[in-house]
Prior knowledge:
The chain contains 17 helices and 21 strands. 47% of the residues are buried. 39% of the residues lie in helices and 15% in strands. The chain is elongated. α11 packs across α12 and α12 (410-433) packs antiparallel against α15 (524-548). The chain is an alpha/beta fold. The N and C termini lie far apart (74 Å). Strands 3, 4, 5, 6, 12, 17 and 18 form a seven-stranded parallel sheet that branches. It has a four-stranded antiparallel sheet with strand order 8-7-11-13, with no helix packed on it. The structure holds adenosine-5'-triphosphate. Adenosine-5'-triphosphate binds at residues 11-12, 75, 77-78, 80, 86-87, 89-90, 330-331, 333-334, 362-363, 369-373.
Amino acid sequence: MVRQGSLLASRHSPLASGPGCEVSLVPPVSIVRPPGLTMRWLPARCLLRPPRRPLAAPPRRRSSGPGRRWLLTTPIFYVNGPPHIGHLYSALLADALHRHRGLLRPGPGRLATGTDEHGLKIQQAAAAAGTSPPELCAQVSGLFRDLFCRAAVSFTDFIRTTEPRHRRAVQCFWAALQDRGLLYKDFYEGWYCTPDECFLTQAQITERPDAQGRPCKVSLESGHQVHWTKEENYMFKLSEFQEPLQKWLQGNRHVISPEPFYQVVRRWLEEDLPDLSVSRERSRLQWGIPVPGDSTQTIYVWVDALVNYLTVAGYPDAHHAWWPTAHHVVGKDILKFHAIYWPALLMAVGLDPPEQICVHSHWTVHGQKMSKSLGNVVDPVACFKQYTVDGFRYFLLRQGVPERDCDYYEEKVIKLVNSELADALGGLLNRCTASSINPSGIYPHFSESCFRKGSDHVDVEPSGRALAEDYELVASVDHLPLQVTDYFEHFQIYKALESIVACVRQTNGFFQRHAPWKLCRDNPAEKCWLDTVLHVTLECLRIYGILLQPVIPATADKLLSRLAVKPEERTFTDLTFLPRYHGKPSPFEGRRLGPDMGTLFPRLETPGRRRMETKGLRP
Ligand SMILES: Nc1ncnc2c1ncn2[C@@H]1O[C@H](COP(=O)(O)OP(=O)(O)OP(=O)(O)O)[C@@H](O)[C@H]1O
């Protein structure tokens, strides 16, 4: 009997660039079930079994609110090569969301990351390197961990799929699927790409000459050779979950963001949803978790990898406090795994799907996805050395737009970071705290008579010195925290940064307009206005410092310390802007500013300029 089934797609997914049109499900390939084959239901030697629940679309849950738990996750990263800036980008997005939530509400919240360590590629890479898979995994996993520590990613959990706790969770998960009758054994036949560990359809392969000039079939996407393969696998009854998945998405628009990716998944679910191959023959894949009770099969690496989120939550014993508070940050290349297979697998074992899936696009090099396999990668550690940790964090989060791919090049980093961090933000702090302009070194007083309260400048008494644009500034900064939070909640961190920068520029305009360096301190009226201009500027900077903590934690700390804002005064409950303007006392007025008068953010130099200077040439 020949059936149609689906396969877990490659790690090299068909998503090339931009959401929407280029995203497609891997079409089905044929499965041959030999006559007389009986399905074997093998007793799983596994452990705890979660309670049975009927297949149904789970209730919709709110993704935010005061005092709610969250379990933010990055993808776990495959250890077939050292990390590049694409991996760092995923981790930074999750880190910024996690930090932002921590400032917004007490939590409790967690941020989990880690490494995906099983599979044929690792088995082969270890053999080629003359080492063992465990040694190779430990080494590369360490590189990811070190990178995230260096990048100030505030992870609370780091999971490795080779850990015993994970093996137990995966085997228990498998047993739960089997108990519910959702797995069956079947024969698969198709083009198999060993390096990519997946079957490919006819449409995904092409013919190219090999090294000897003989024609051979290769994967269109990765270029790796494929072989016609027939093997017996376990299949997951994914097709039974088409309707529950559709219901889950209906009326739950924010579960996948940004919106274009939600639409992509909805379109996928309108197509045929065939069953899924979820194991590989052990004779081909030994470096993986064995199927419980069947020594001939290894659990497919993607099922193994996805269950990591449950392992972190404490599955199978103690996950109830943390599941389903999961918010997954993933690259669009693995959207299908997270938005279709993973929710279906969860529903299958009676668990709710994740609360939210935040999807981002790719960093590209000359239009091509940066990837370990292609080798066109940029080393994040070298970037930290060149642009500083905060400079590079800022660049990736400010420049990366989840809906669109972004081409990476060095000049862009230098230009953006210099203009926004060194000049606009750092320059403003420097100007308003300079001893020439604020010799006493204190947070100056605000004068209501100079800056009269009024929602409209037309109402302002002639004695006030504030201008229409100054009231616009106050309105913008007043509104900024809400705007920033809204952007974060909608996974548009780049827009949050854009609006902060717009306010920083507005503040520079305010400072420039009133030229406090021209005001005379010896004249009481002038001094009153001078102090007010400085007070307003410092208040603006205080708000920017608090809001920037999730993105540039070290620089924000430096800025807030210079403004004498204590660590316990840096949460989002401290975001009341310019309380004196609103007739309330300010805890900062009259406080001595912090002692560190150094540059907030040093200007970066272009490599060309550095080289010329080294040779004694004038740029
Ligand atoms: N170029 C990229 N831009 C943005 N994110 C990326 C990029 N490459 C990888 N990621 C992130 O890392 C996750 C895992 O990627 P993976 O380990 O497959 O990286 P890769 O370099 O594409 O590896 P390979 O070449 O082996 O497929 C992605 O889902 C995504 O979250």
